[in-house]
Each structure stands twice: as structure tokens, then as C-alpha cells.
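From the methods appendix. Each design record in this collection lists the discretized structure first, followed by the designed amino acid sequence. Records were kept in a plain field format so they could be parsed without special tools. The example shown here is representative of the layout used throughout.

RECORD:
C-ALPHA CELLS (194 positions):
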């Protein structure tokens, strides 16, 4: 790395918030907002009630970057805000009834997905371990989503997988790779120390 690039990087990665608890609170808030943003980037598909969003990326990133406990807190804050009526769910939706709809299982599984991603990846996990954590976090959201979709539709598992998993596998694999790239780039910086 050139001297100029090293200087710029060290300047950009200085701790803005020095207190550990304040930094954790800022991290939780930032990821709750990122998950909200990710939900607003929603692409509806005509054959399923589940839209494509990028919020999955931010849920698993929260778990790996903040750790399991704070990541779950960020995802839980997002879900609670939406349940309370804040327009944070996809396409600006909100309210408790939304959690009982076709996408509610994915939303309710988000805090657990952050826990799984963070716990498996570990604090200083190597790339394979981090990749596994991110992947298992996404799979955790799938399990929650499929369980609720099956309960709502009464369809067999194969039909529910066609509605709630298969259309999203390629995109979610890309999100996992993007998350891995982000995490690997931030490890060892002040950003990676919550």
C-alpha cells in the first residue's frame, strides 16, 4: 500500500466514538437503519408474495460485524419498530399484522439469523468460518420464512420452497459473498471493533 493510501486509510478509520458502549449503540442504530434501507430496496416477483430485498445482507452483516448479541439487538430493534407501526418493512409497510403475513417469518427470524451468523463467524473468524456463518444466517431466515409461508398457505413443502426459497438462492449467495468481502475488508480496523 502506498504511503498516501496508508495515511488516508488510517485517517478514515480513526475512532469517531471512543466510548465502547456508545460505539455499540451507534453500531446497533446504524445496522437497524441499514436493515430498514435494505427492506426499501424491494423488487416484487409476480409468482410469490415474497419480494427480493437486500435486507438479508444487512441482517447477517449485523451479526458478524457487531457480534451475535448486538447484531440480534439491531435486527430486533428493526422488527420491533416495524411491529409498532413504523414504515420500515418492504415498500414502506409497517404494523403488527405485517408480521403475520407471508413475509413475517423471515422478519421474525432476523434476530436469530444475526445470532447464528455472528456466533458461527466468531470475532476473528477466518474466511471459511465467516462464510459459513453468513450462509447459516441466511438459511436461518429461510427456515423462519418457509415455516410461516407453509402455515399460511397450507401447501406442501416443495411448493413453499418454490415460493420462498428457490427464487432467492442465487441473489442471497451473491449477498453472502458481498458481506464476506465487506467483513474481510473491515477486520482489523476500528470499524470491526464494536
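DESIGN:
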Amino acid at each position: 500500500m502506498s504511503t498516501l493510501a496508508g495515511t488516508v486509510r488510517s485517517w478514515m478509520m480513526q475512532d469517531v466514538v471512543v466510548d465502547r458502549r456508545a460505539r455499540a449503540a451507534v453500531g446497533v442504530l446504524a445496522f437497524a437503519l441499514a436493515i430498514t434501507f435494505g427492506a426499501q430496496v424491494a423488487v416484487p416477483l409476480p409468482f410469490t408474495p415474497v419480494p427480493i430485498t437486500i435486507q438479508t445482507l444487512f441482517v447477517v452483516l449485523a451479526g458478524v460485524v457487531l457480534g451475535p448479541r448486538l447484531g440480534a439487538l439491531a435486527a430486533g430493534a428493526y422488527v420491533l419498530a416495524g411491529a409498532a407501526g413504523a414504515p420500515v418493512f418492504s415498500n414502506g409497510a409497517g404494523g403488527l399484522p405485517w408480521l403475520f403475513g407471508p413475509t413475517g417469518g423471515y422478519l421474525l427470524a432476523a434476530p436469530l439469523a444475526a445470532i447464528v451468523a455472528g456466533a458461527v463467524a466468531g470475532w476473528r473468524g477466518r474466511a471459511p468460518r465467516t462464510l459459513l456463518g453468513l450462509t447459516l444466517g441466511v438459511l436461518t431466515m429461510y427456515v423462519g420464512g418457509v415455516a410461516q409461508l407453509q402455515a399460511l398457505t397450507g401447501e406442501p413443502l416443495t411448493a413453499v420452497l418454490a415460493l420462498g426459497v428457490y427464487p432467492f438462492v442465487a441473489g442471497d449467495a451473491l449477498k453472502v459473498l458481498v458481506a464476506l468481502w465487506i467483513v474481510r475488508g473491515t477486520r482489523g480496523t476500528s470499524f470491526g471493533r464494536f
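APPENDIX NOTE: The radius of gyration is 17 Å.
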